[in-house]
Structures are given as C-alpha cells and as structure tokens.
Fold this protein.
Amino acid sequence: MQIDEKIKVFISSKCGGERINYDRLVDTDSIDKKYVADRAVRTNYDLVRRALKTALEETGLIRTYVFEDTSASSSVVKEDFLFELDGSDVCLFLIDNFDDNISEGLLVEITRAQRTNKKSFYLFLNHPEKEETSIQENIRRTAGTHYFVIDDIRRFIDEGYKSVINDILTTYKKYCKGNITFTEQEIATSVDIVGENFPVDTTDIDKQIFKNLGLTKNKMVSLIYKQNSKDVQTSDFDTACLEVLDFLLGEKDFGDIGISSLLEELSNIQPPEVHKLVCKRWEAISSFYAGHIEKAVELLERTYQEFSEDKSISKWLLNDILIDWRNLSTIKGQAENIIDFSVQKKIDQEKSLVFFPILDRFSTNINNALWDRNFSLLTSSPYSISLSNPEHLFSLISNYIFTAIYYGSFAQLGCVLEQIKKVIFDLVQKDNNILFKIQLMRISILCGNEMDFRKIFQKYGSSLSYSSVEEISELYNLANTKPLPYQKETWKVLIFSEIGYYLSDADFEKVSNEIFDLCSKWVESENPNVWLGEKLIKALKTNNTRLSQGKIIYFANKVFTNKAIRFYLSLSELLISLDFSMVSHGIVNDLILQIKTIINDEEINHQGKKFEHLLTKLRKIRDDFDNEIDEIVKEKFPGFFDNDYHLEISPDKASHIRRYLKQIESRNASQGVNGQIAFYANNPYITLRNILEYDQNVLDEKLLTDILAVLENTLLSKTQTYSAKDDAIKLIIFLKSWEFSPAHDWSGLYSTLHKNIETLAKGSSNYFSETSSSQILNLHLVLLKRVFGEDCLQELIETLALINNGDEFEKIESLNALENFLKFEKDIFSELSIASILIQYVSNFCFYADFDIRYRTVQVLYELLDTPYSSLIISQLSKMMDDDDYRVKWGILRQVQKIREYSETTFNYILGKAKIDKNYLVRKALNKYAI
C-alpha cells in the first residue's frame, strides 16, 4: 500500500569513510592488528547509514535522509543539512569517541536538533580506552533524552532501527489509551454580523465566506509547521485574502495584489455607500504602499469629511477612518521630523467610544482560546501528554483579515500581524523551538512596533546563535518591505542593532557598509531626522567591537562639525566604548581638536556630556597626545584633573587612598541620619581594592590599620546601608588574604566585630537607591565568620535557603558574595561539607531564566573547580555552552583553560561549540586559543 505522508528520519554520523589500502597496512610490520581494526571501524559509517536507510524504508512508513542522498546545490552544504533536519520528524545520531574532537558538522546538527526540539536518538560506540564524548556526558544528565551505548559498529543498524520503530509504537499506544490529548478543541469560527450580536449598525456578511478561507488559514499554519493542503475549503475571497497575507508577511509586493478584482467582488456583497467608502480607503492604502504618504493622508482626510455627515455610515466606521488618518499622519510626521497631534485631538473630542465591533469580537475569541489553552495545560494531569493545535486560532485570524479587507482598514490590517504575533508568542512559551522564535522575530519586524520589536529581540534574539546564515540575513532584508524610504532606513538600523553580531562575515561587511552610508547621508542632510540619528548612534555603539573604529570616529567628527548639540552625550558614550589603540594618529587628532573646539565654545554647555571621561580614555590608551590632553583637562576640568583623572593616568595611585578613606568616613557620619538615605554614583570600597591590587607594595601596617578602622566603623554604624556593609566585608576578606596580613592583629578586629554582631546586622535601606538587603548582609556576615574560623555550617545552610526563596536581585548578590569569598579562601575546599553545600546552591542557577544569574553562576563554578566535585562542575559548564546568551558562553570561554587541566575532551568540545556559534563575540573569544 502506498502511503503519501511518511515519517522522515534524519540520520547523522561521520561522513564519507576513510579510504584505506588495507593490504599495505597489513604488510607493514610496524602496524598492529588493533590499529587496522580501529581504522576499519571508522570507514564503515557510509555502509551503516545505507543499511539503516534500507531497513527503515522497507517498513513503508518511513523516509530517511542520509548524506549520500545529497545532490548538487547552490547552497552551502551545512545550510542544506539544516534545511533537511528542520523538515524531519526524528533524528538519529551515530557517534563514537575514536577522535578527541567532535566534527563541526555533527555539532551543528545536534545543536539544531536540540534547539528545534526534534525527537532524537543518540547511539554511542565507545572505545574502552578513550574518554567518552562530552555529548554523551551531557545527554546522560538530560531528562527525557533517548540514548544507547553499543560495543560494535554493526549494532548501529539494529539499535537504530529498534529505537525509531519502538518509539512510533509507544506513541501510538499512548494515544490509544488516552494519554495524549489536544489542548485546543475546534470551535465555531464564524460569527453572524447581525443586530442581535452587536448594538450598532453593521453590515451582514455571509458566514459562508468565513468558512471558505482555508488557503489563508493554511498559510498562517505553515509559519509553524507543514500543513496538509488536501480538501481545503476556498473561494475567490480566500485567494484575495491570501494575496494580502502574503504581502503582510513580506512575501509579495503590494502591486502584485489584485485590488481592483477584490473591490469588484466586494461590490457584489456591500451596500453602495459602504462600498464607495471602502474603495476610497483602499485607494489611500494603495497610495501609502506606493510610497505616496502625502496623497494617502489627503485621501483619508477627504474621505472622512465626505462621509462624516452620512447617516447611513456607522459612527464606529467613521472613527476607524480617523484612526487610519491619525496613524498615517504620525508616520508622515516622523519622516518629516515633526510631531502632529491634530488628528488625535479629533479622536479625543469624539463623544462615542472608539471600537470595531466584529474585529473586537474576533480578538476576544482569540484571547479566550489562548486562555482556555493555558488553563487546560496548567490544570491537566502531569501524566498526560498535551499536543498543541493552533489551527483554529489561525482560522479566527483568517476571519479577522477578511473583515479588515472588507472594510478597507489600514490599522486593522496591521493588527492581523499583531494577532499572528500573539499566537506565535504563546507557542514559543510552550515550546522552546528556535523556528518559532525566528518566526516571532520576523513578525515583530513586519508589525513595525519598535518597542515590541526590541523586547522580543532582547528576549529571544540570542537564539540566533543557532540559526542558519540565511535565516539571519533574511531578518535584515525584511526592512526592504517597508513602503517609505524613512521606514526602510529606520528599520535597517533597528535590525542591525539587534543582529549585527550574528551576521556572517560576508553579510556583516555588506550590511555595515550600508549602515555607514546611511550615517553619511544623515549627517550631510540639511534637516537630519532626530529619531533616525539617535538610532544610528545606538546601532554603532551596539556593534562597536565589530565595526571600523576609524569610521565611527569619522562619523562622530562630522556630527561635531555640524554642531548637532543634542547628540553630544550619546556620541561621547559611543566614543568612550571604542578601542583607540589601532586608530590612526590623524583621526584621533581630529577628534581631540573637535572636543577642544566644543569645550572652548562659550555658547555650548558641555557639562554632563562626558567629554572629560572621553579624554581620560584617550589618555590611557594613546601615548602620543599626553601633554595635549593633560593641558585640556587641567584647564577645563580642574577638579576632575586633580582627582579621578590623576587616579586613572598616574602610576602614583596610592596617594588617593587617604582621599577615599575620608570619603568613607564622611558617609559613615552622615548616612541614615534623620532617616535620610543618600545614593552615591561611585563606590570607594571597590576603588580602594582596585588601587591596592594595582600596587600591593603601598600597603604597610599603618595604612592597613587605618583602612580596617574605617571599615570597622562602617560595620558598627547602625544607619549605614546594607550595600556599604557588604562592600566593607568584601574588602576585609580581600585584605586578610594577603601574605603579610597575618602579622596584623586580626583577632582583635574580629573580637570587636563579634561582640557587636547584632549591630553589624543592622542597616538602612532605600527602595530607590539601595542595592542590597538584610539577607545578603547576613550571608556576608556568615562568610566573614568562616574566614575567621567559626563553625557556621548550619547558619550558612539557613541563609542560602532563605535567599534561594527570595527575588532575583538577592540571588545575583549572593553569587557575587560567594565568588569574592572563594577567590581568597581556598582552604574552604578542604571542608567537603561546605563545598558540597555551595555547589548544590550554585548548581540550581545553571539554567535559571535570568542571564545575569547564569553568567555569575559560571564565575562561581570556576572558583569551585579545585574541589573533589570538579567532574560535576565541568559537566555543568559544558552543558551551559548551549546557553542562548552570548555573555554566558563568553564567561565560560574566558576561563576555559582551567578545564583543560582536567579534561582535554571537554575543553575541545567547548571550543567546538564556540566555533559553530553564530555570535561574533563568542567566536572572537577563541582567538587566544589559536584554533
């Protein structure tokens, strides 16, 4: 029997076996039989894949993909593999540990399968004398992952076959026993637009039209998964809706939509006056998408004025015209650098509520369906399996798009994408699938809501580390779907801000050149757009480490030349973030001349523009402008010159210690008095530690005594803030760890502190400015007790348990406290009880939702690496290399050399994962490892 729909199995392993002259090997005396056998095993993967393919396809239920099936293609081979993998239902990975390194291609495929939540099976053939692969190590500790260890390459065939077939049978049995349920039920998707349903005049639409929108619905479903196109109920209106949807999704030009044919069809079902109004609205929409914004606004204004007194037209429909008029006027104003509230005032003056009856009903139905789905998932039995089926939601959105087309509503056509975004966002929450996330990012760009776009990319943009080159470049190209030049430019800049580090080298060069061209065009225009200017500066800052530093400085100099004062602060912040070490002398000289001109201009208020910090950065990195910069700062920023500037550029940093001690004393005397809590921009405790680390020789017994006396006063102050006391304890732990410090009377200091332990635990807090809490201070006090030899195991357990039940802020601060403690108290490792408690606590955060917590977890894990639990820590760090956020992976790579001392295999695996990462900063971190 011929079965059309088959299960597709993707088989992955080493490819293209090594072709070996066995006769020559056998005749060679220096080659033993074991070596020949090992080489023979490694040549048989092509045969194994062929045998597996044959066995699985003989069932008649399965279609397989193997490397040998690949035909010639214009795409990169890796991209072809990912395309086939994405279209597969099941992945079967055949892996051995014969090599120290896992191939780049196999790592890419495994990572993609994991990120798309593919049903996957892993078969491991292990050489008994070699370390098992990091892939196997990670899989073994992952719940729900199917893997099997074999001892003969021929068992790849039998076990691979059984794994796939048994899982198919198990899934079918669960379904038959009712253990698999669908979270959504098919509901009525058509609504009669009659007076009984709506308390206003609306036009009747034949409900059969809504039932015949199958093609439109299937198009939306295809954004998520492949849809069966058989037996689709369709109509001419469905075809028109599909064309409009293709346009909204960026897959068709507006000019290719048959608007005239659509309006002709609508004339057969609309009252004459409504049809006349709708034709004018579509004329305005057509003008806008043709790039004629002025004409579109004028058409809407005339349409509103023409029909505003027509009693046959419902008030809600007239208000919808007002909304379109307002929206297009806003876009026009943004392009022209003006703000126009005139149409909004008309809307505010309307006595009737602004709403859209039938579309509000559809929107409510969609929201209710999402609510029902979530309710079902959260209240269903934990032993049942729920499968999502969003088709009925897309049916409702199909109704939505037809109604928006029917009334010619520009605003509601945009809301179609918002409804799609809402459904896909919900799917992303339920299924952490990279393909869903990419679709969500695509829709957010097409919707055009900048705030939502930023939120979505900040939340999910890091998933692009595991995308294909084509998927990433397509996101940038979506900017070209915008109708107006200003919109195209704006969205290119916005998208570049978010994906610049994920573009391939070739794409980045092309896109960055385009962004710099936009910079030149903007800075040379007679009336540069303010909103676009800020976005350009932000985009350059976001991608600064990958961009030409000289080009950025050249752009900044042009802005300074034009005296665009409103951009001075953001430009200064951009320039401070640059690396001036490789920039030519001439470009830096031009920049210094520009700064000098600005701060000498009495008409320009340069206060708060951070030019003094920019000059400090230049002075620290460049040694060819020392005298010139010194003179500028001394003359224009004398107070800054004597204090922070001197601290930064002078080798004599010790002279500032007394100044910071006086600052702490002053704050101890004033902080919290009369309930007044002050917030300070600088942290003298951290500055003191940095100075002492820079030059340890400056610390003698007298200075140490004075520092500790000030810190003691901080801790004994009942009104000092929690965070100040935290910092004081950190500095005490740091000072006690130094080699000469045992000569100090530490027991006397601790005796005083211990006698006043209740006072130490008291502090002030301000909701808006405080950066600590009583629980974090308690943790620091427990750690301080441990430094001075107290047995505080029970207290440590209780404190960590309370923090673990607290908020994210307390978790972050607890990890900071533990990192600081472990850096200087290595003897903790001899106490297995404390070390095990800390490892258990920290391990809870390896996969925590907040990236900052995960990043700080990495730092603490490295500090615990020398404990007897090193294998567990290495395993955790290895798995965390699958983290979405580049900052977490960068944190692992920064100290990965430490792992090499324990496991060369894991070290190579982590570097291999970084090598295939799409994020430029992750790959850049590999430079020091010369791979």
Observations:
- The longest helix spans residues 357-379.
- The two ends are 53 Å apart (CA to CA).
- The longest strand covers residues 90-96.
